[in-house]
Amino acid sequence: MSSPLHQRVVESLGQRIVSGELAPGRTMQADGIAVELGVSRSVVREAVRVLQSLGLVEPIKRVGVRVQPMSSWLLLDPALIRWRLHGGAKGTQLRSLTELRAAVEPAAAALAADNASDLAGAELISLAGRMRAIGRSGDLVAFLELDIRFHETVLSSSGNEMFAQLHGVIAEVLRGRTADGLMPEKPHEEALQLHLDVADAILGRRPDDARAAMARIMHRATEEMAHIWDGAPRVFLD
Fold first, then answer.
1. Which of 107, 128, 153, 205 lies 20 to 30 angstroms, CA to CA, from 50?
2. 182-224 pLDDT per residue, tens
3. How many CB atoms lie within 10 A of CB 8?
4. Distances in whole angstroms, Cα of residue 237 to Cα of each of 52, 70, 71, 113, 120
5. Is 229 in contact with 95 (CB distance < 8 Å)?
6. Domains of the chain and CATH, by start
7. How many C-alpha atoms does 161 have within 13 Å on its Cβ side?
């Protein structure tokens, strides 16, 4: 288990790298990092190993720790998603993630209608019903957790292990949207009904209906957030 000090160094350096404060090609020395952040070199070494596993840095013998270009980053890692959402490129990150969701989640819903167990279908019906009740009450914290579980269950019920691995991505997007005040005070009735429609179509083995209802959910999300990324630059990796 990582120590609080180790995690603090990971968070500090990770956020500075994804924000561009520490630009690609920048070389840092472990001693300098230790002094700047007030930690030991062993803590820095452990943090560097984590950042290296995320593709953010590469230790160079007798040189130091070099910041890597975005093309090396594990962009779908939940930590990177969180850091980018809290940085200056939030608009670009939100657009990319929303486009990813719009491409994947309708297909996942259609697959779930073919492949989900009856138990999973019933769970989706239950989650959608609870989302409607909680959403109408205005409890966005409780609604968020139900919403995450709903979308994770759709992904995991698709029978596609690649889709299922995106659960952390979806969770970070939904948490970031709520934390940044991008949700209405109460979820719209249409959105609540659409989640019920997705669940009903999956339980009823109607893949076309499941795909269409999830696509409408994604369309609503895009419309509600498009103003955030208006004019934000596209990212082209080398």
1. 153
2. 777 889 999 999 999 999 999 999 999 999 999 999 999 999 8
3. 16
4. 19, 7, 5, 35, 38
5. yes
6. 4-72 (1.10.10.10), 78-228 (1.20.120.530)
7. 0
